[in-house]
Amino acid sequence: MVKFKLNISNPKDGTAYTMELDEPESLNLVGKKIGDVIDGGLIGLPGKKLRITGGSDNSGFPMRPDVPGGVKKYILTGRGVGLKLIKGKTVRGYRRRILVRGNMVTPEIYQVNMVIVDDGG
Asked: Model-level pTM?
């Protein structure tokens, strides 16, 4: 059973809200990638266009847009999503191997972050 928690933000007025998406509608998101624009009617928001900006899987590992596919993978990185540094500062030469999820929405994904790009009105 595929179930997603959607975090949808509206940049025009700065609001954000969450919604749960169950089996029939949630299958429309499987196979989409970070950066894809989808029609809101597929998930129960008719007239809106939504862009997928990220998410995390059921273990809490974040999705990265530069990792292809829907797999868990160890990557060596010095900055970006999934790497926590002291006070957000980058340290020269500091790199770390972290476990992240790829950029494709799969049934193992739990949370999907989206932003409204066109509200249709």
From this structure: 0.90
